[in-house]
Write a structure and sequence with these properties.
3-stranded mixed β-sheet; 244 residues; alpha/beta; 9 helices
Length: 244
C-alpha cells in the first residue's frame, strides 16, 4: 500500500516510511501525521530477475510459447485488477492506433470478464491475451516491446519499476507513485489523464516506434532502486529510529 511503519518498544511508532512524497502528504492530510515523522523511501526491485540480459535470453522462447510473431508489437499490462489500473483506457488506446500487429499481453489474476463485449466491439478479441498469474513476470517482459499501466491511483506500483529494470519503456500516469522513476520523454511517457485514450495512444505510438532510450539505458535509470541499495538506506533509517 506504499506505507511501512516502524515502532518502538512501547508500541508507539518511532516514525513512518512512505514510498513517495505524495503518500507522506496524504498521511498528513487524512491522518494528521506530522510530515516530519515520515521518511520517504521508495521500494526496491529484484535486479537479478528484471534486467536486460535476462529479457534478451528469454525473448525467442517467450514469443514462441505465447504464439507471438517476432514482427508484431506487444504491450504488456501487469495487474491483478482491471478498472483501477486503467485497462479500459489501454484497450481503447490500442484500438485507436489502428495497427493490426499491436497486441496486449495481460499478466495477473484477471480475465476478460465484463470487458469481453468491449474487446469484441473494438476488434481486439484476438489481440488481447490473458496469460493469467505468473511466478515469472520477467518471462512476459521478454515477449514485450513496451509496458503500459494507465492507472487511476497507485501509491507506488512496483510493476512499473520492474518493467524499467527489464529495459522496457513505460507508459503510465502521473497518479502512479512510481511515476517518479519514469524519465518523461526518455524512459517512458507520463499521462495527465488516465481516462484519455487519445493521449495514451499517442504515448504508445511514440514508444512502439522507438522513441525511448535504448533498453540498457532504461534499465540503468532505475539501478538505484535495486534491493541491495534500497536495503542499505532502510538500514540507515531504522538505525536512526533506534537511536532516538
Amino acid at each position: 500500500n506504499g506505507l511501512y511503519g516502524y515502532v518502538d518498544v512501547e508500541g508507539a511508532y518511532a516514525g513512518l516510511i512512505a514510498c513517495t512524497e505524495r503518500v507522506r502528504a496524504e498521511l498528513a492530510r487524512y491522518h494528521d501525521v506530522p510530515e516530519e515523522d515520515v521518511v520517504v523511501q521508495p521500494l526496491g526491485f529484484d535486479e537479478s530477475e528484471f534486467n536486460v540480459r535476462r529479457r534478451a535470453e528469454l525473448r525467442s522462447r517467450a514469443r514462441s510459447e505465447l504464439g507471438l510473431p517476432e514482427s508484431d508489437k506487444v504491450v504488456v499490462f501487469v495487474a491483478n485488477e482491471l478498472e483501477r489500473k486503467g485497462f479500459d483506457t489501454l484497450v481503447r488506446a490500442v484500438a485507436g492506433l489502428r495497427e493490426p500487429d499491436v497486441h496486449v499481453l495481460v499478466v495477473g489474476r484477471v480475465s476478460a470478464g465484463g470487458y469481453a463485449v468491449e474487446l469484441e466491439r473494438l476488434g481486439l478479441t484476438r489481440r488481447v491475451r490473458f496469460a493469467g498469474p505468473s511466478n515469472s513476470v520477467a518471462y512476459h517482459h521478454a515477449a514485450a516491446d513496451a509496458f503500459a499501466l494507465p492507472t487511476r491511483y497507485e501509491p507506488w506500483g512496483l510493476a512499473i519499476v520492474e518493467a524499467l529494470g527489464s529495459g522496457l519503456p513505460v507508459v503510465t500516469t502521473r497518479l502512479a507513485g512510481a511515476s517518479v522513476a519514469v524519465e518523461e520523454g526518455r524512459t517512458g511517457r507520463l499521462l495527465d489523464d488516465p481516462d484519455d485514450a487519445s493521449e495514451a495512444a499517442s504515448a504508445l505510438d511514440w514508444l512502439l516506434r522507438g522513441g525511448a532510450a535504448p533498453a540498457e539505458e532504461i534499465s540503468a535509470s532505475v539501478s538505484s532502486l535495486a534491493w541491495p541499495r534500497v536495503l542499505e538506506r532502510y538500514e540507515g533509517i531504522l538505525a536512526d529510529a533506534a537511536g532516538r
